[in-house]
Design goal:
209 residues; Hypothetical Protein Pfu-838710-001; 2 domains
Amino acid sequence: MSIAIQRQELLLIGLKTKFYSLSIEASEASLPASRKWSLPQRLHFLYPFFMGIEIERKFLVTSDAWRAGAVGEEYCQGYLSQYPNPTVRVRTQGTKAFLTIKGKPSSISRPEFEYEIPFAEAQELQKLCITPLLKKTRYKILDEEMMWEVDEFHDENKGLIIAEIELDHPESSIKRPSWVGEEVTMEPRYANSNLAIHPFTEWMIEDGR
């Protein structure tokens, strides 16, 4: 990356920081000092805007009410590294491919850096994965102006359907559609990287279902 581009990016970050800080100050203008945000609170709020951060919640799907008119895209993904190390995922989706690095989760957020890569290279990288490949169909469902991603899993994870929603901030509120049930965000066994090595159908046998 050239010095000129680095300077441009730093300038953009500085302008964005100033803009959001001024927005916060304007919204707090009429509040007493005791109710205004401290500097750490402001930094906590601004952090997701500038860093590669994934903020996501996961839920089980309880009915087929979401299926009407839904069009899915096929995903195939494997892992070059897993927790407790950074998770490194190689994914193909449709005709595109991505390499994604995810850091250690903190509540519902974690560092995430994603890069599009050539499809053929992704297929070769998937041969190096330390996990079996996980396959699913992803559907995007717009409900109450919120975009839900519904993953219907295949093969040894057949029968599992999870709804995910990405948020701008950990404190963002959501309104669940009628077909969204129990939250499983904090349950490790529902992580895709875990499903690749401990598939859903194994749980059913272990749980006697």
